[in-house]
Write a structure and sequence with these properties.
Layout: H1 4-10, H2 25-35, E1 43-44, H3 50-53, E2 70-71, E3 112-113, E4 118-123, E5 135-140, E6 149-159, E7 165-173, E8 191-199, E9 213-215, E10 224-233, E11 240-250, E12 256-267
Parallel strand pairs: 1-10
Antiparallel strand pairs: 2-9, 3-6, 4-5, 5-12, 6-11, 7-10, 7-12, 8-9, 8-11
Amino acid sequence: MASLWVSRLACHVQSGERARFRAVQGPLVCALTLAACVTGCALDTRKLHEAEMNGAGGGAGGSSNTSSGSHGGPKAPPPIDLPVCSYSDGVMAGCESIVPNAGFRHGIEGWQAEPLAISVDWDARDADGSKDSGSISVTNSMDGKTDGLAPGGGMQCLPAAAGDIFDMAGDVYIPDGQSDGAAGAPSYIGEAGLSILFWPTSDCSETSPTKANFQTKLVEDPGSWTHVQGAALAPDSTAAMSVRVLTIKPFKQVIFRALFDNLLLKKR
């Protein structure tokens, strides 16, 4: 539905050998996102890099903690200071989010899976270690025999208009123990982050999104919660946006899973 175009085209994007992924990671993932466009307490490492908070550029990359980027459209606005929010016990001051169900306290109401081999569910693991709240789990099982990367995630379709500036932040966790199942395979299994696609129709159902999209830097390292953030400018012809909890994995890998929590989204 909302991102059907995203998932279908992703199946046909060719990216070369997986071993070469890190060398071309930034440009490749940016192009992919434009063309094709997460029980128990885990270690909390939700720190923001000061240099990046002062305006370092965006794009995709490793497990750096914060980024602002707009790919294929208007230049991303400079980032602003955002609070590191928790929704485990209500809404903290300054953490009012326009994303319904931003903290996944009791479920994933309001969120849906993008089509084609993506599933979403509630997970009891919470970014703040709360026993009374959880997170959204995204499982990406879009796989095949060709080379390339398969992006997909959970989403909400929300109103947006040309010229709107949105600031987005949240927490990402990649569970340990995931593997592509191949002996001697590279350690890379996938990445996860937050993303926005801007659409020319109010229901996010047009054939393709507008010529601008946004994603935070992508988390790759498993085993700890990582805080990410960024800013996005809605381009001309925008009528809505898909707010996404995004996973990206090698197409040949059978499955990849990531958790997401505390999704702050503000309009400037």
